Amino acid sequence: MAQDSSPQPSASRAVSEATSRTFNWHWLGALAGVAMVVMTWLPHSYLRMVGWPWVLVWQSGFLAIALWLMSQLRQLDRPFRPLGHGLDWAVAATGISLIVCSLASDFKTVALWNVVLASFYVFALYGGVNWVRQAQVKTSYLATAIAGTFLGTAIISLALWRPGAESAIDNEFYQALRNAMPFGHHNFVGGYCALALPFVLACAVAFRGWRRWLAVAATVLTGIALYVSGSRGALLGVLVWLLVAIAAFVIGSTAKGRLRRLAMGGLGLAVMVVVALSNPRVRSLLGSLNFANPSGFVVQDGPLLDRYFLAKIAANILRDRPLVGVGPGVMSRVSNLYRPIEAGLGMDHSQQLHSTPSQVLGEMGLLGLGVYLLWLVLIIGLWLRLHRTIEDKTSRWLLYGVGGGFLAYGISSLTDWQLENIGISMALVVLLVVLLHLANPSERPLPSPVGGATRRYLSLGLLAWLVIAGYLWLMADLGFWHGDRAVSRAKQGDVAGSLQHFSSAAALVPWDPTYHALLGQEIYGLLPLVPPEEQAAARQDTLANLYAATAIAPNDAWFNHNLAVLLLPQDPAAAQVYSQRAVQLLPRSGSLSRYLLGQTYLAQGQTEAAVTAFSLEGVSQPEFLTLPLWREEPLAPLQDSVLDQALAHHQAVLEATSPDAPGYATLYDQTALVRWWYQRPILIAESGTLRPITQALLATDQNPAEALEIVNQALEQSPQDQGLLLLRAWLQPSEFAQPYFEQANLPPAEQAQIAASLVDYRDVRSWLTAFGTPIQRTGRSLLGLTYRNRYAQSINFIAPPNAPSGELDQWAIPELLGLFLDFPREFVALDQTVETLQAEQLNLPSAVNNGFEIVPAPGPAEKLF
Fold it and tell me: For residues 518 and 549, what is the distance between their CA atoms, to the nearest angstrom?
């Protein structure tokens, strides 16, 4: 008896010690869970995750996940098992593919940063699966916690939604629906809700008591949050899920009850279609499709057109780098090399391709696409096997919820890339944990535990990986901290302190161009205040930082443009190269890039090339042909040649464009306006409709009374049109000047200047050119997304090209009249014509037509100042 009973205390102590050790490490799992929930609920979390101090929240959570997993590996007296069901092979294939694609990337450190992020989701998956297996957590308890998190997200999303009172107007409601809270983008909100809605609905059916009411609340609020997110991809995902669910509901019934189920399912689907069609964003999509077009249907919806162009970027990358893509997470660094010409002004430095398959294909090539398909096949296969074996009612409903969430999100993900978002990726991980936990060990035994020696090696490998991650995180965190301090010091007026912090950040994070760009921007802005004896050193510092930013992000069109501007006075040959690069990367932009290119040619005596570049700028921006700079040397002698070429190019574009095409009417109007400005004949061959203000200007030369009649008729339709009101004031100042100033809301000095011009300049062209005003420098937006750095949002420095007088001006009166309009973002005939002329006459094809390459950058210049 003694021999039989003696092992029991030892076994009990072993179990007790193991349980104690397990309990002691549970706080790591709890910390990780809390951190992930905080990042899910934090307003604007997607941008805050790359800024101080919020970066510490998710990093502490990820660190807790890794240490939690390491503790499980080191508890050798407790089994640690693989995922099973073939998913471990998918994990291995994913890891190998990520590393291979990163090593093949031109931006290896940026790619490695993203590989590190992806690895922690794998750690969370293994840690979560083994924890629920060891602790024998009931699936219903796990599902309740997940449903509670989904409920909290929906509550926060709706609480932070600010549609405004004007949302009652349908056109305004279209904008009000795009609720971006809490993630920071409405598509993120929609994708998350599409993932959550089927799961919480299944929980509402499966549970009883208070948990059912929690799930019901989550279902209702998540559905509302999905609707007001305005994400059409998410609505599509939910509709597809409902269609599949209804089909299964009808097919799974007996013959006797099938008709009743069919009626119920049809009614439910009809209700959901009506709800979807009530959404103004869905209606705008349907209204943008022109099925009457003989060549097929034409898409005028901006977001849908964006996805078409982004798909072409993915296709271009596939042509250039088919096997390994451009590298994980580096799309924004290279996308302009692959951007199609017909995208026009859109898709500038795209961070993502708005489609998960396209993004995977672009960043990881066919290797990544194969891994993506492998995950789909394995998860679908696992779900189907469980569907055949699970009999417990609660578990079966949870299986439906997980499968429905994956289906709805999978369809939604075809229209957006969201795996960089921590809240969404972690939600996918925990639902996969639920799916694996639903697997019945009696039907399919759990995988064999990993051996002790292997676990030790795995834990050491995990520790080594943490060292790599810790180094990258530490450098990035210090950079974020210095960037935050720099911005704070600048607001306090401590310029020297701000510069020092930016300099420190730039030294710590050599793979991020943000800090060099901001440092160069600040120094450049201070140049007017720098004493003459220190000007050379300050300019050299500006140049060095712009060089550094451009070297880190060589495919950033704006960085190349800024560097060309700074180099032009001292080294026009180097400025030409950087200007050419900017034009090749972003063929049409608002920065007068071809004007800058023409300046570099002119500075080197290449007059013919300069005229060509100037004329092409005039094609893209007709207002350029009327700027004051054409009255000054050395551009004045070139004016006639530039104008002749530009007008000929305008005519070629008009002839190549259908009068019904977007952009034709604007180009026709602007061409007529430029011809009138320079008293050139309006060609009879042209056909189109002029705006009332253009018609009135054309009439002022011969019949001012007719011009006034045109203006008055137009004002009957648009009584608040400021341009028409100002032109009427010039045509008849004694009667209409005072009414114009009473409602124009102009600064006193500007009002006095305009009032004087109405009397002093009675020739219309003299009035239009009475006085100038500086052209506002163009800013940039969403750079925090481009470079995954919150402080990149402050990069708004786009240096204007140097005019002969030292400042680039525009005429003030035409600006107030609104004479010159922007062309549509997509204007294919215009962009293709300019591209052809640029390639033929300047030997400067855009990157997408040049083997996805641009002119090589010259080495750093010697000291220039």
Answer: 9
Distance between first and last Cα of the chain: 96
Per-residue pLDDT tens over the stretch 749-770: 888 999 999 989 989 999 999 9
Closest of 447, 206, 810 to residue 214, by C-alpha: 206
Using a cut of 0.85, tell me whether the model's pTM lies above it: yes
d(CA 554, CA 560): 7
Contacts of 557 (CB under 8 A, 6+ apart): 336, 348, 349, 581, 582, 585, 586, 589, 593
Please say if the pLDDT value at position 168 is more than 50.
no
**Residue 159 contacts residue 392 (beta carbons within 8 Å):** no
Q: Are 193 and 225 in contact (CB under 8 A)?
A: yes
Q: 3 is written with which tokens? A: 């021999």
CA dihedral 583, 586, 590, 591 (to 10 degrees): -40
The DSSP letter of residue 493 is: T
Q: Kindly indicate the confidence band of residue 529, based on its pLDDT and cuts at 50, 70 and 90.
A: confident
Residue 778 pLDDT greater than 80, yes or no: no
Least Cα distance to 81 among 39, 150, 120, 131 occurs for 131
Q: Which of 374, 325, 376 is nearest to 353 (CA)?
A: 325
More confident residue, 306 or 407: 407
- The predicted model gives 358-381 an average pLDDT of 97
Find residue 809's DSSP bridge partners.
774
Cα–Cα distance for residue pair 335/358, rounded to 1 Å: 13
For residues 224 and 154, is the Cβ–Cβ distance under 8 A? Answer: yes
What is the maximum span of the chain, computed from C-alpha positions, in angstroms? 124
Question: For tokens 């001292």, what's the residue?
Answer: 570
